[in-house]
Fold this protein.
Amino acid sequence: MRRSGRVDAQEPPRHAAVDQSGDHALLAAGGSGQESGATPNGRDLPARADRAPHGVADRSHLVVAFTTTKAIDLTPFGFTATESRVYGTLLGLGPATGYQVARTARLARANAYAALEGLVTRGAAIRSGSRPIRFRPLDPQGLLAQVAARQGEALDRLSRALESAARPPEPETHAVDGARAVANVVQQFVARAEREVRGVLAAELWRPTLPAWRRAASRATLHLRLAGEAADTAGLVTETVAPETPTLLLVDDSSAITATGSGDQLQALWSSHPLIVELARRALGESR
């Protein structure tokens, strides 16, 4: 029997010592050894939250892959959904291999390569000739220009098909006001010319309608006189006449456009009525 006040020292249980050393080993391997604390704003912060977790390089790569995949929908213009996704990925990555594109876009490699080849075929991407082969996206403005050109050609084909399939339209006559509205009418008729455009055009309408004249010149004959002076006539203007000469155009001997005034006071009338077309033809014949 022991006396009160005297306690013999006892060794802790062996299994407790083993557990203690095991805990230390686990903490060292995990890269942690601190308990949760509080941030200056009083919120709890998990232990070692200020340190990047193991494998941070891989996670950073995944973040980059997500942020460089642009959500672009090219399907209305003849591309597949996968091609749209891959083109957006290329915009974020820049020149890249098929493997890089597949990994970033999270696609099967075969699907990524098929989409890349589709983009190259449609002119939306360029393949390098060196090894490893890399794919570079066509810049967005270049792609827009290509799509617009293809859509314009498709609309032209549709327009001609509809015109040939439909019965002859009823004659129309319309009036428009303002320089912009008049320029739009001139552009529409001139750009669709198939055989001939002749007449007089006000100089202030030349610059806004120049793309339509260039397009018409590729398939129709132009006999155009300019009322006034203008720069960059591009060899499309036959001669110049007095600035006060009113605009009078005859398109394919089937539509007539006449305009007078200037600026916001510019007024025009266009018509497919045979009588007005004949009057325009005679007026141009008398003014030659």
Remarks:
- Residues 30 and 107 are 33 Å apart (CA to CA).
- The radius of gyration is 38 Å.
